[in-house]
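Hey, I'm writing a tutorial for new members on how sequence and structure tokens pair up, and I'd like a real worked example in the thread rather than a made-up one. If someone can provide the structure for the chain below, I'll link this post from the tutorial.
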Amino acid sequence: MDLTKIDFTIPTLRRLYRDGAATVADVLDEALRRAAQPHVWISLLCREHVMAFAEKLSPVDLDKLPLYGVPFAIKDNIDLAGVPTTAACPEFAFTPARSATVVERLIAAGAIPIGKTNLDQFATGLVGTRTPHGACASVFDPRYISGGSSSGSAAAVASGMVSFALGTDTAGSGRVPAAFNHIVGLKPSKGVLSTRGVFPACRSLDCVSIFAGSCHDARAVFDVAAGSDVEDAFSRTLTDGALPDAPRFGVPKAGQLEFFGDAESARLFEEAAARMSALGAQWVEIDFTPFRDAAALLYAGPWVAERRHALGDFFTQHGDAMDPTVRAIIGGADKYSAVEAFDAAYKLQALAVAARGEWAKMDVLLLPTAGTTYTIEEVQADPIRLNSNLGCYTNFVNLLDLAAIAVPAGFRGDGLPLGVTLMAPAFSDRALLALGDKLHRALGGFIGITTAQIADQPVVAPPSAREIRLAVVGAHLSGMPLNHQLTTRGARLVATTRTAPKYRLYALANTTPPKPGLVRGSEPQVHGIELEVWAMSEAAFGSFVAEVPAPMTIGTVELADGSLVKGFACEPCALDGAVEITAHGGWRRYLAAC
């Protein structure tokens, strides 16, 4: 069979294998033929190496292995056993004895690596030009950037060389290249894909990302790759978060969107938002300020010191071997003190609280993936400022612990593609893939520069678990010491309100951290007690309740509007030695007055 015009989407390959129309060796030979393109690869595996993976597969494995015979690419800051990891810096190269956890899982599911892809050196950039292996260009126009840092991975998928590719995404590296090459880029929730075996950029923020032609294929890869890893200290267990069938999607209010003079990009975004509305979603305006200000912290703040930490002595001993722009960015870490690091952490926490206020208005945030694109020549002439422009809508996502999916949004008048990104709180990955699939189909469903279209297999959202609403009045409030017990379970802030005017509040004695006790009284007060209402799945609520220590209990709380939700209460014995603080109206005001 002539494979030269066959797309490498996962459903197509599985059909070919099942029908006996092609063998794994046939597909891999075609993948290697297609891969003979400059600037995409740092190391392309030889045929013998690739076929060694194929020889481990048996035809009977097709129904057992979800990625049977599927060729994929690996960004060259992710380890593949026996193949040098260079991070696009030859002097830094080392050869790992073991593959990264995510690569091990994919190979165990039948996927076959064919090489390591080009990137902005040490994953520092959104342009794809900061590499000694030659700037990786858009598959649509060699004058324009592919986007970075995962430039080669995106190009490999968009040109049909492989079915999917791994990238990394700290500041947008798994989304911007997807937009510039008309493919899907999944930026998973932090910790859901292991980063063991990934050379870090900012270790506390790094995510392994997935490039694919469709949300269907990205979901197939995600289902295999996701999972906690005891060898990764930043690993987290995914608990599927649901989205409403008709979600509210937030768009920055008038004047807050920046397209850097690109009217075509503005038009494409408006059209994408209109299509979201046509799909039944509700368009709501939000204040983008806390998201924008958080984005500014990533490079204009001490997080750049994590990049410096990752390089260790290499930076001081071999800095002259680095790309000059990358060296200048990472070298900027030396100007930050520990005090400034804490200042930035406190500022980020305040911005996160403000952002949660905006999340109370929406279920999903829709933004341009990038406001515009640039030529390679333009970026090389002004590398810092233009790169910063490209991170306007991406830099804040990991800082604020969000999941994101970038999907194609059509083409400018000059034939260059741009994209939009859907974002939601952590652990909404599978729900975002389903929503992104609907939007991609509504926008045409084409893949990269190929003639392929996404398969007639819509992505199914995870079952919508019934949400339980929980009122919190003290240490679990936004910004308080125990709020993480909610956010790490994927809970979302629904409202800031008050109790009905029947409750009293006490500062309990001998609690760590300090906690209040909410008690329903017989005499109504002038005002209720300030509180937040959070929503979470039944499973998350169950695990949360299991952590509630005595004398705290979970009961039912009446809100100011008369509705009932679950909420914190306390056993009567807890009031021994407690001080009534009802007059303050809430825990925050009491703490401020202390």
